[in-house]
Task: structure prediction
Amino acid sequence: MQLPFKFYPKQPIAGDKLIISYNNGILLDGLEKNIYLKFGFGDEFIEGKVFESKMIKKNGEYLTVVPLLKSGFLFIAFKDNFRNTDDNNRTFYRIGVKSKE
Result:
């Protein structure tokens, strides 16, 4: 399954700054819009602990940087200003974050 986003570094470690590029998702429909990253940290997704960041449009994709505060999982989803979401069928996408050793 191809993800609607890319991220770097590919094996993130707590303390890294993660670059996320939304470049292949359902929200990229050619309309002029804002796209936001919704994200949360932990071992499981908790709706009350979700943050939001406006992404920057550059060359047809949307970019943002997220500081990885701790190990576990980074849960992410995307939304636009028309209330459309790309959230992996309401389960959020997960990126594993390793601890510093």
Strands lie at 5-8, 17-22, 35-42, 51-54, 56-58, 61-67, 72-80, 85-86, 93-97. DSSP finds no helices and nine strands in the chain. The mean pLDDT is 92. Residues 26 and 49 are 25 Å apart (CA to CA).
